[in-house]
Amino acid sequence: MAAPAMLLLLLLAVAGLALCAALLWLRRRPGGPEGARGRVCVAVLGDLGRSPRMQYHALALARRGHGVTLLGFLSTKPHSDILCNEKIHIVSISELKVLQVGPKIFQYITKVIAQAIQLFYTMLKIDRPSYILLQNPPGLPSIAVTWMVCLVRRSKLIIDWHNYGYSIMSLIHGKGHPIVQIAEWYEKLFGRLSDYNFCVTNAMKEDLQMNCNIKAITLYDKPAAFFKETPLELQHKLFMKLAKDCAPFKRGTDSIRPVVEKSAFTELDIRNGNVTQVKERPALLISSTSWTEDEDFSILLKALEDYEEYVSDGIKLPSLVCVITGKGPLKKHYNSLIDKMHFKHIQICTPWLEAEDYPVLLGSADLGVCLHKSSSGLDLPMKVVDMFGCCLPVCAVHFQCLHELVKHDENGLIFRDSNELAEQLKMLLLEFPTAESKLYMFRRNLRASKQLRWDESWEQTVLPVFRNN
User: Fold this and answer.
1) pLDDT > 70: what percent of the chain?
2) DSSP strands (E only) in 97-154
């Protein structure tokens, strides 16, 4: 039997068995209401700590009186606001590893079946939700499983479309691979069974309607309230914390002024508590990533090589500290490339930051770089949203619908290759850090833009769905 047909039959078999088990389980349960009316399960078959939009959904629902079950992997810690909220109950599911036995197709099928059983069982155990708000991707097997749970427990299914799972799979296997084709068919079929849908761009909204016959509401990612410019005192505290493990943040001791505590960017006068920026400090460039195939960091590394040449040729540019945050499968690969690079004027580090430290670092940086190229061309990088919340100017790589977020030469710059990025770095950092620099102009534009925050946007877009139903 062909692998695609085998996969489909196995999925159908698991679905049938799970549905029968659920009906038997419900018949044995005592009658009466299960859980609080209006309870919402916010679910993601992924790491909760790296799913900020779903965390924001949970917080917004809790603040408006809903009991929330937040369900997902706990590989990294969610934000402290989530952990401290009494209305949010976190239910963890295990991140199952692929069995290293047999052909890859067999390993993948085994993992999908195991995840389906685990997710179904866990969703039946929690207090009955009125709604299940599910992140997609990943949608295989979570959309089908969640739909069956909603059918059994008389809940409504809401899918929040961040991207398409099959388009991400195509980056690894190619668009014509049977697994990718099955995933596309599955996503479109089960996606239509949802009661309500949200998505991240108007381009995705149109694509869902045209190609999947799914009506969705666009809910743009917006920065949470804690993404803002960081005061110097907090900057210094974070820089000193990072200096313990990251050499670029360290500053040599000053024997002449022992009462001054220094990082590479700031100095604290211990006598009076005043914090000032170091004269001729380096520029702090930041990029965040999940280290996956949809972000080509060789573009940034090549641009940094060109920047190094500019400085060596006598162009008056500041030294750079480049911080790339995040976890992911390609981190080891890129770290090995970085280790082979020998710069005189540029330092690179790749730390993992706690959820509370990340916005503080963004609010302390001088320039952001985004290398996210959407696998579908229809989603927007949330990292840019967060950078804009901190009034941090951004250079972002071009793709289909990026114009819905980045306005070229207004709040940032769009580049297509490493040469363009290198030229933009040079242009922005000339006359750094004075108010005459182009970089400062973009920051001034962001400060004046009065951006809508997540809570305001959520209240306008999502809350009516819950109120009307």
Assistant:
1) 90
2) 131-136
Q: How distant, in Å, are the alpha carbons of 35, 147, 180, 442 from that of 127?
A: 5, 16, 35, 48
Q: Which residues contact 374 (CB under 8 A, 6 or more apart)?
A: 163, 294, 380, 381, 399, 400, 401
Band the pLDDT of 102: cuts 50, 70, 90: low
- Average pLDDT of the chain, as a whole number: 88
What Rg do the C-alpha atoms of the chain give, in angstroms? Answer: 24
Q: What is the pLDDT of residue 38?
A: 82
Q: Give the whole-angstrom CA distance, residue 277 versus residue 439.
A: 17
Residue with tokens 């999502």: 462
Dump strand ranges (E) for 319-433: 320-325, 346-349, 367-370, 394-397, 412-415
- Residue 325 half-sphere exposure, CB side, CA atoms within 13 Å? 20
* pLDDT for the residue numbered 37: 53
CA 262 to chain centre: 32
- In terms of pLDDT, which residue wins out, 130 or 7? 130
**Which of 8-17, 80-89, 135-144 is predicted with the least confidence, judged by mean pLDDT?**
8-17
Residues whose CB falls within 8 Å of the CB of residue 44, separated by 6 or more in sequence, listed in order? 51, 54, 71, 72, 134, 135
The answer to whether the peptide bond before residue 137 is cis (omega within 30 degrees of 0) is: yes
User: Average pLDDT, stretch 127-147?
Assistant: 95
| Confidence category of residue 360, pLDDT binned at 50, 70, 90 | very high
Asked whether 320 and 304 are in contact (CB, 8 A), the reply is yes
The Cα 402–Cα 368 span in angstroms is 15
What are the tens digits of pLDDT across the range 303-322?
999 999 999 999 999 999 99
18 pLDDT above the threshold of 80: no
Q: Tally Cβ neighbours within 10 Å of residue 30.
A: 5
- DSSP-derived pairing of the beta strands 320-325 and 346-349: parallel
Which are the contacts of 294, defined by CB distance < 8 A and separation ≥ 6? 168, 171, 372, 373, 374, 375
Whole-angstrom distance, CA of residue 444 vs CA of residue 361: 19
Angstrom CA distances, 284 to 227, 231, 241, 420, stand at 17, 15, 16, 19
Q: Which two tokens stand for residue 463?
A: 């809350």
Cis, bond preceding 178 (omega within 30 deg of 0): no
Q: For residues 186 and 273, what is the distance between their CA atoms, to the nearest angstrom?
A: 60
